[in-house]
Amino acid sequence: MPDRSSKRRTDSDQLAKFVTDIATHAIPRQVAEPPTAKNEAAVVLGRLGGKKGGAARAASLTAEERSRIASRAATARWSKKNDS
Hints:
Largest sheet: none
Radius of gyration: 28 Å
Number of strands: 0
Mean pLDDT: 82
Shape: elongated
Order of helices and strands: HHH
Oligomer: single chain
Low-confidence stretches: none
Number of helices: 3
Protein backbone atom coordinates (compact mmCIF):
# COMPACT_ATOMS: atom_id res chain seq x y z
CA MET A 1 0.00 0.00 0.00
CA PRO A 2 1.58 3.30 -1.03
CA ASP A 3 2.10 6.01 1.52
CA ARG A 4 -0.17 9.00 1.20
CA SER A 5 2.87 11.23 0.99
CA SER A 6 4.21 9.47 -2.12
CA LYS A 7 3.46 11.18 -5.39
CA ARG A 8 2.03 9.20 -8.26
CA ARG A 9 3.76 9.46 -11.59
CA THR A 10 1.04 10.37 -14.05
CA ASP A 11 3.35 10.71 -17.05
CA SER A 12 3.90 7.32 -18.68
CA ASP A 13 7.50 8.17 -19.62
CA GLN A 14 8.36 9.05 -16.01
CA LEU A 15 6.71 5.86 -14.78
CA ALA A 16 8.61 3.75 -17.33
CA LYS A 17 11.93 5.31 -16.27
CA PHE A 18 11.10 4.75 -12.61
CA VAL A 19 10.29 1.06 -13.19
CA THR A 20 13.46 0.63 -15.26
CA ASP A 21 15.56 2.28 -12.54
CA ILE A 22 14.15 -0.09 -9.94
CA ALA A 23 14.69 -3.12 -12.20
CA THR A 24 18.32 -2.17 -12.88
CA HIS A 25 18.94 -1.33 -9.20
CA ALA A 26 19.69 2.30 -10.02
CA ILE A 27 17.21 3.11 -7.25
CA PRO A 28 17.17 0.77 -4.25
CA ARG A 29 13.77 -0.71 -3.45
CA GLN A 30 12.28 0.55 -0.24
CA VAL A 31 11.86 -2.36 2.14
CA ALA A 32 10.02 -2.14 5.44
CA GLU A 33 12.33 -2.10 8.42
CA PRO A 34 12.46 -5.34 10.40
CA PRO A 35 10.85 -5.21 13.84
CA THR A 36 13.15 -4.08 16.59
CA ALA A 37 14.69 -6.75 18.77
CA LYS A 38 13.26 -7.39 22.21
CA ASN A 39 15.03 -6.11 25.28
CA GLU A 40 16.88 -9.20 26.55
CA ALA A 41 16.70 -8.09 30.20
CA ALA A 42 12.91 -7.75 29.99
CA VAL A 43 12.62 -11.16 28.34
CA VAL A 44 14.63 -12.81 31.12
CA LEU A 45 12.59 -11.11 33.85
CA GLY A 46 9.28 -12.04 32.23
CA ARG A 47 10.34 -15.64 31.81
CA LEU A 48 11.55 -15.84 35.40
CA GLY A 49 8.25 -14.51 36.72
CA GLY A 50 6.30 -16.91 34.50
CA LYS A 51 8.25 -19.89 35.76
CA LYS A 52 7.66 -18.93 39.38
CA GLY A 53 4.00 -18.01 38.96
CA GLY A 54 2.65 -21.38 37.84
CA ALA A 55 4.41 -23.32 40.55
CA ALA A 56 3.40 -20.82 43.24
CA ARG A 57 -0.25 -20.95 42.18
CA ALA A 58 -0.27 -24.75 42.08
CA ALA A 59 1.25 -24.90 45.55
CA SER A 60 -1.36 -22.52 46.98
CA LEU A 61 -4.39 -24.42 45.59
CA THR A 62 -6.07 -27.26 47.41
CA ALA A 63 -6.68 -30.57 45.66
CA GLU A 64 -10.40 -29.74 45.43
CA GLU A 65 -9.71 -26.36 43.79
CA ARG A 66 -7.29 -27.93 41.29
CA SER A 67 -9.89 -30.57 40.44
CA ARG A 68 -12.60 -27.95 39.91
CA ILE A 69 -10.33 -25.88 37.66
CA ALA A 70 -9.35 -28.97 35.66
CA SER A 71 -12.99 -29.97 35.24
CA ARG A 72 -13.92 -26.52 33.95
CA ALA A 73 -10.98 -26.59 31.53
CA ALA A 74 -11.97 -30.02 30.21
CA THR A 75 -15.58 -28.92 29.78
CA ALA A 76 -14.49 -25.82 27.87
CA ARG A 77 -12.13 -27.87 25.71
CA TRP A 78 -14.72 -30.49 24.80
CA SER A 79 -17.59 -28.04 24.33
CA LYS A 80 -15.86 -26.26 21.43
CA LYS A 81 -17.49 -26.86 18.08
CA ASN A 82 -15.47 -28.89 15.64
CA ASP A 83 -14.51 -26.40 12.90
CA SER A 84 -12.76 -28.96 10.70
